[in-house]
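Any chance you could type out a protein's amino acid sequence plus the matching backbone structure tokens because I've never seen that pairing?

——
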Amino acid sequence: MSTVESIPVAAPARRQGWRRPWVWAGVLLLAGGPLVLATVAWSYLALPREAATLRDAVMRATAAEWRTTVQADVGAVTLGAVRILVGGVQANALRFLKT
């Protein structure tokens, strides 16, 4: 009778892809853009708490019936960008408006 001894075989090594920085860079590149766009859209369409409180107080203070159809928040970043763009426009470019 022959006895065959079994040789222990190591389990195959698992790939640990999430520990590699290039995987995280790829995830950020793919998911980062849509997340930034969603955050920007949310910031424009959701009023800050103070503005919503003021709106609700004005609605309650008047006797008219109010209905919110569109609300948008133009914050400091947007106004700063507009200020930079308009600051570069010279008066000669706006001459056609004086007619």
